Amino acid sequence: MIKRIGKRTLALENRPYLLGHAAAVGKKEGEGPLGERFDYVAKNDRMGQHSWELAESELQKTAIRLALRKATLPERFFYINFLSTICLTCRTVRQTISKLLIYAHNKS
């Protein structure tokens, strides 16, 4: 059960933990000294999209899909609503997460 401690503070009954994680980056980041450590490096900075914003959104979607795959659990086990509090500025990514949650809920 979640207990509200303050106006913006919650106390969780169990410690949170990550089931999966992934990093998707653009071509330039992939060419840097940490390039081989990323899960996905785009071949070009636009990722086949018409704008930088859409390309960034596509990178974030790719990272989410890879993280879900690496966790090796069916999608219905994922409750990703906490991601909306992280700095996701692309509306299309939030819509994708919402669709994943609806899909996962309907599958269970």
Structural key phrases:
7% strand, mainly alpha, two-stranded antiparallel ribbon, 3 helices, 108 residues
Report on the architecture of this protein.
The chain is mainly alpha-helical and 108 residues long. The chain has helices at 27-31, 52-71, 91-107; strands spanning 3-4, 10-11, 24-25, 40-41. Strands 1-2 form a two-stranded antiparallel ribbon. Strands 3-4 form a two-stranded parallel sheet. Helix 2 (52-71) packs parallel to helix 3.
Set out the fold topology.
Layout: E1 3-4, E2 10-11, E3 24-25, H1 27-31, E4 40-41, H2 52-71, H3 91-107
Parallel strand pairs: 3-4
Antiparallel strand pairs: 1-2
Helix pairs in contact: 2-3
- What average pLDDT do the residues reach? 76
Largest sheet: 2 strands, antiparallel
Regarding quaternary structure, how should these chains be classified?
Answer: single chain
Strand content: 5-15%
Low-confidence stretches: 84-89
Structural class by helix and strand composition: mainly alpha
According to DSSP, the number of beta strands is 4
Main-sheet strand order equals 1-2
Indicate the radius of gyration in whole angstroms.
Answer: 16 Å
N- and C-termini, Cα separation: 21 Å
Question: Which percent range fits the helix content?
Answer: 25-40%
Number of helices: 3
User: What overall geometry do the principal axes of the alpha carbons give?
Assistant: elongated
